Amino acid sequence: MTKSETRKTITKRILIGIGIALVLAYIVFLFVTTNFLGSNNISTEITYRSTAEDIVKTTGLVVRDEEYVNANASGILVYDVSDGDKVTGGESIATVYNNEQDVAALRRIEEIDEKIAFLQSLGGASNTINVGIDTVNSQLNDKLIYLEKQINARAYDNIGAAEDDLMTSIYRKQMITGQQGSFDDKIAALEAERSTLQASTGKPAGSVKSDASGYFVSTVDGYEKSLDVSKIDRMTYDDLDNIEPSSADNPACIGKIIKGVNWYLVCPVTADEAANISRNSGSISVRMPYALSQDIPAKLHSVNQSADSDHTIVVLQCNYMNSDISHVRKEPIEIVVNTYEGLKISKKALHDDEVSRTVTDDNGTERTETATVQGVYVEYGNELVFRQVDITFSGDDYIICNENPAEGVLFNGSTVTLYDKVVTEGGDLFNGKLIQ
Known about the structure:
Blueprint: H1 3-35, E1 43-46, E2 48-70, E3 76-79, E4 86-87, E5 92-97, H2 100-121, H3 133-152, H4 156-176, H5 184-200, E6 206-209, E7 214-217, H6 237-242, E8 253-270, H7 271-279, E9 285-287, E10 296-297, E11 299-305, E12 311-318, H8 323-327, E13 330-346, E14 351-360, E15 366-380, E16 383-388, E17 391-394, E18 398-401, E19 421-425
Antiparallel strand pairs: 1-19, 2-8, 2-13, 3-5, 4-7, 5-6, 7-8, 8-12, 9-10, 9-13, 11-12, 13-18, 14-15, 15-16, 17-18
Helix pairs in contact: 2-5, 3-4
C-alpha cells in the first residue's frame, strides 16, 4: 500500500470516528436534556384557594298548611297587612270602605304622612352646616353606589330605602350649600291637605279579621286544597306528577293564612341524588334563582322511595318567610348539598407516581415503604417534585384539594400548597426531574 493510500485510510477512519463520536454525543445530549434537564415545553398554573358547590337541580313544589280567608262584608277592600306579614287570630286583615272615593282619599293621606315624615327627618340638616363639602360629596357618592348595587343585584326589598337615603343626602347638600331653605311651608301645606281629606272621608263600613295565626298572602292558586301537609311523608313520585290545582273561584275569598312556622319543598330526584342529600343533610340550603336573591336554609325532612321505580322524592323543611316566598308554589330550584373550600387544580395536572416514607418498627429499625398515589408535579427550584393530593371535590375539569389534610390521609404527609406552580402539560414527567 502506498503512502497516499495509507493516509486516505487513516483519514477515513478518523472521519468515521468523529462521526460516531458526534452521534454518541447527540444521543447523550438528548438523554440528558430529556431525563435530567427537562424541557421548556411544560405548562404550569398557580394554585389558588377557591370554592365549589355540590348542587342538585330539580323542581320544588311548596306544600304549606294553608287556610282561605273569606270576606263577610261587601264594599271596597283595603288590606291592612302586606303579603308575608305575620298575623294573629282576630287581627284585622282588611278594612272595608263604602266607595272608591274614600279609598283614594285614604291612600292620599298615607302618601302625605310619608312625605311629612321624610321632610321632618331633613330638619336635622342644619346641624351639619359645619361639615366639609368634600365629606358631604363622599357620603352622597357612597349612597349612589349603594343604590346602584341594590339595583344590579335585584335586591328589590332594599331599593326603596336606598332611594330615600340618596334623596336625603341630596336635600341635605342643598341645604348646606344654601340652595334649599326650610321645608316648613311644604309641611304646613301637606298638613292642611290631610285635614281636608280626613274631614271628607267616610268611616269604614267594616273589617275582615283572621281566624288563625300565621302569614298572610293576598292571592290563592288552587293548590291550597290539593296539597295536604300531613301526607307529605307518604307522597310518591306518581302522586307528585298527578297533582293538579283545584278550583279556587270564590268571590268572598280575599287571600289565605299560611299556618305554622314550617313549610316544605317536595322535590323529585334520583336515588343517587337522594343518597347524597341524606349524607350531607346537616349542611343543605335551597336556591330559587328565578324567585329569590338569597339562599334559604333547609333540613331534610324525609326521603320517599317508590318501591317499583328508580324515582325518589326528598322533602325539605324550611321556616324562612317573606313576601316573595309566600307566593312561590312550583319553582326550579338548586339544592346546595355541600360547599367545598380548598386549592383549585386542573384535572390535567393529575398523575400517579410512587412516593416513599421512612417508618420505624417497635425494635427501632428503620425501613422505607413506597406506594403509588395520585398527585401533581410542582416546580421546586429547577426540578419537579411530586406531591400527593387529598381531593374533596371533583368537577368537570378541575378538582378542589384539601389544603390541610387530616393526619393519616397522606402517605408521606407531603401535599400541594397555596401558590405552588403545578405542571398541567409536559412530557416524561417524574419526581426529581431537572428543568431548565
